[in-house]
Write a structure and sequence with these properties.
Layout: H1 3-26, E1 33-36, E2 39-40, E3 52-59, H2 84-101, E4 105-112, H3 123-131, E5 137-149, E6 156-166, E7 172-177, H4 185-188, E8 195-202, E9 208-215, H5 225-243, E10 247-252, H6 279-282, E11 287-288, H7 291-295, E12 320-324, E13 329-335, E14 349-354
Parallel strand pairs: 3-4, 9-10
Antiparallel strand pairs: 1-7, 2-5, 3-14, 4-6, 5-6, 7-8, 8-9, 10-12, 11-12, 13-14
Length: 359
C-alpha cells in the first residue's frame, strides 16, 4: 500500500475516532433500569390502605407559556426560546395552581435543567422552592439530556426531566428506559430518551403503592415508536397488577382517545393513527378521561392539549391521562381549564381516588 494512502487512511481513522469520542462525551446513555435519589423528609406521613388520594398530572412545557410558536410546533414556527420574564410568570402560575389544588401527588413533565433554550434554569428546583412546605418528598429523572445538540434551532445543551412530588413518604424510585424512536447511530445519541419515573410509596400495613410518571414520544410522523412504548408501559403495569400492587400512572402520552382522530382537521392527523396505540392500555385498565368522556357530548371539558398554533383559540385534543389499577376506585376527576390556558400547551388532569382497603 502506497505511503500516502496509508497516511490518508490513518488520518481518516483518527478523525472518525475523535468525532466518536466527542459525541460520546457530549451525550447521555442511560441504563435500562436505574435507581434514583429520593429527597424525603423523615416526618412525611405514610399512606394508609383505604384512604383518599388526590393526584395531578401536568406537562408544564418547560415554563415557556403560550406567546410563542416554536420551531418544533409548526413548520412556520421560528421561536427558539422563551424570555426569562415569561418563564418566571409561568413558574409562578404553575406554583399557584398546585398550591390551590394541593394534590397529594404531582406528576410533572417537561421541566428543564441545564438547557440552553430555558436559560440553563433548574426548573424543578425553582418550583420545589415554592411548594416545599406541601411536598416533603420528591424525585426526578431525565428523559432528554446532552451537553450539545447540533440541531441549528438548539445548538447547545438540552436537559428535560420528569418530576414527582409527594405529600407522602417515598421509599425508593427508579428510572425505566422506554424504546426510542428509530434513527441512525449518530443522530440517535442526541434524541430524547423517553422513560418511566417509578416511585414506590409504602403503606402502613407493610405493602406499597407504585406511582408512575411518563412522557411518551412526540412523533412528527407516523411510525411504530409509540406502539412499542405503550407495549413496554403495559408490561410494567401488568407486573404490578399480577403482584397485587396498587398502581397509577399519569403523563403526556401523545396519543388520542377513541373518536378524536376523526374530529381533527386532516393536516393535524399526521402524527396519529385512527387506531390509537393507547387501546393496549384502555382495553385492560381504567383511564381518565374515559373514551366516553373524551369523545362524548361534554368532550370539550376533557381536552388537555392546546397546541402552539395561531389558528387555534383553545385546546383541541386529549393526550394527557391517568391510568390506574382496577383495585383503586375513582371518586372524581376533571381537567382544570378555566385559568390554565396561558400557562402551558397542556392542561392539568386532576383526580381523586380511594386506595384499596387492607385485606
Amino acid at each position: 500500500m502506497p505511503r500516502l494512502l496509508r497516511y490518508t487512511l490513518l488520518g481518516l481513522l483518527i478523525a472518525i475516532s475523535l468525532i466518536a469520542l466527542l459525541i460520546y462525551s457530549l451525550t447521555w446513555r442511560p441504563d435500562a433500569k436505574e435507581a434514583l435519589p429520593v429527597s424525603c423528609n423523615a416526618q412525611a406521613p405514610t399512606l394508609v390502605p383505604g384512604q383518599a388520594l388526590k393526584v395531578m398530572t401536568w406537562n408544564v412545557q418547560y415554563l415557556a407559556g403560550k406567546r410563542y410558536v416554536f420551531w418544533n410546533d409548526l413548520a412556520a414556527g421560528d421561536d427558539e426560546s422563551p424570555t426569562p420574564e415569561d418563564m418566571a410568570f409561568s413558574l409562578d402560575e404553575v406554583a399557584r395552581v398546585i398550591r390551590d389544588e394541593q394534590p397529594d401527588i404531582v406528576l410533572l413533565q417537561e421541566l428543564d435543567d441545564g438547557a440552553k433554550a430555558s436559560d440553563y434554569q433548574n426548573q424543578f428546583k425553582l418550583l420545589q422552592d415554592r411548594v416545599t412546605d406541601l411536598y416533603p418528598c420528591t424525585t426526578q429523572a431525565f428523559d432528554w439530556k446532552a451537553d450539545f445538540v447540533p440541531e441549528p434551532h438548539i445548538f447547545g445543551s438540552v436537559g428535560r426531566q420528569l418530576a414527582t412530588l409527594s405529600r407522602y413518604r417515598i421509599e425508593h424510585a427508579e428510572r425505566l428506559q422506554l424504546p426510542v424512536a428509530p434513527a441512525n447511530l449518530i443522530s440517535r445519541q442526541f434524541k430524547p430518551k423517553d422513560a418511566l419515573l417509578v416511585t414506590y410509596l409504602p403503606l402502613n400495613d407493610g405493602g406499597q403503592m407504585a406511582v408512575l410518571n411518563t412522557h411518551l414520544d412526540r412523533a412528527t410522523q407516523l411510525d411504530d415508536t409509540l406502539q412499542t412504548q405503550v407495549a413496554a408501559v403495559a408490561r410494567v403495569l401488568d407486573k404490578f397488577e399480577s403482584r397485587g400492587t396498587p398502581w397509577l400512572i399519569g403523563g403526556d402520552f401523545n396519543l388520542l382517545p377513541l373518536g378524536q382522530y376523526q374530529r381533527l382537521p386532516a393536516e393535524q392527523r399526521t402524527p396519529y393513527s385512527a387506531d390509537s396505540a393507547l387501546h393496549v392500555l384502555w382495553d385492560k385498565y381504567p383511564m381518565i378521561p374515559t373514551n366516553n368522556e373524551a369523545s362524548g357530548i361534554d368532550r370539550a371539558q376533557w381536552l388537555t392539549h392546546y397546541p402552539n398554533d395561531p389558528g387555534l383559540n383553545g385546546p383541541d385534543r386529549t393526550v394527557d391521562y391517568l391510568f390506574y389499577s382496577p383495585r383503586i376506585k375513582r371518586v372524581e376527576a376533571r381537567v382544570r381549564q378555566d385559568d390554565t390556558l396561558r400557562i402551558s400547551d397542556h392542561l392539568p388532569v386532576i383526580a381523586r381516588f380511594l386506595l384499596p382497603a387492607a385485606p
